[in-house]
Amino acid sequence: MSEPQEQSQLAQGLAALRAGDKATAQSILREVVKQDPRIIEAWMGLAQTTDDPGRQRACYENVLKIDPDHAAARAGLATLAVSAPDSASPAGETIDSLRSKAAAPSATSRSFKPPQGIPDAPASFSLDDLLTVNKNLLASLQGTAGRGGNAEALIASWWNATVLVVTMGVLTGLIAAIVNLIRSNGFGYSALAIITLPVLMTLSMVAGLAGAVVFSRWFLAWRGVAPGNLLDHSMALIRPWFGGSAAALVILLIGGLAGAGVTSLDSLLLYFQLSTSGLSLILLIISLVVAIGVLYLTERGWAKLYPESKSLDRYIAALVSLLIISIAVL
């Protein structure tokens, strides 16, 4: 993780702590200290996310290893000496143990070195990191919808945006290839087609999202809204789009395997291919609900970026943006 991304993640964790969301703050700050165990602010924040005296003690002791004269950490240990004199620091919470974990390869997934030309790209990336991105995305969508969580759990970075778009492009391409392979009984389908479809789908999504971002920023500016940060604007669109597209993949797979004829959320917005089966109607209703949810979450995300803008303008920008993405991936 690069230093700017590390500092951004630290800021998000402390912001969640100030907002009273201790669970999210703890999750984010633990990731920070795993990457760099010598960040004092992260340890002090972690001490406030738990009621376990042993874990609090470990946080304060780690701070004092970095800065032996840290007054707040000394005061925290002094308080624990009175309120919980028998508490002990849990194993695995020391700076040295975290350094060893960070240096050791993951036992559950292998990492690879991502292209370093992407801003905020980490030194290595693994399946565990991908799962963390998706976990933070879920918390982010819940926060945007006002259903708990933290709207900023998934840090706005070009690396996270790249991970989401590439992941969705590859998954959509693979599932579409599998469905078509099953429908055609393998006739006319080659291994090359299965390999190239995810690549083409990813490129189509990149083009669609780029066009959607350009249009939405232009439209809001035309409506008198001061342009916001490009990255924040893009992530406010990509977060809900990814969630909706994931739901669309499930619909695509179910509809394809059942022969119901429903394709995907993207093409559903422009083209309906329905059979008379009841499953088609059910999948159609679910798809429409998902589409409305993506539209709502996109509007809510932009509402936080552009509080002076009108709700109708944001909805129009979001609707046309989703249509642009749909056209690109058809």
- What is the CA-based Rg, rounded? 23 Å
Order of helices and strands: HHHHHHEEHHHHHHH
Number of strands: 2
Question: How many H/I helical runs?
Answer: 13
Q: What's the rounded overall pLDDT mean?
A: 79
The shape, in one word, is globular
Structural class: mainly alpha
Q: Report helical residue fraction.
A: 55-70%
Largest sheet: spatial strand order: 1-2
Number of domains: 2
Structural summary, described in words:
Helices cover 70% and strands 1% of the residues. It is mainly alpha-helical and 330 residues long. It folds into two domains: 106 residues, Tetratricopeptide repeat domain (Serine Threonine Protein Phosphatase 5, Tetratricopeptide repeat, Alpha Horseshoe), CATH 1.25.40.10; 172 residues, no CATH class. The chain has a two-stranded antiparallel sheet. Helix 8 packs parallel to helix 10 and helix 10 packs antiparallel against helix 12. The protein is globular, with a radius of gyration of 23 Å.
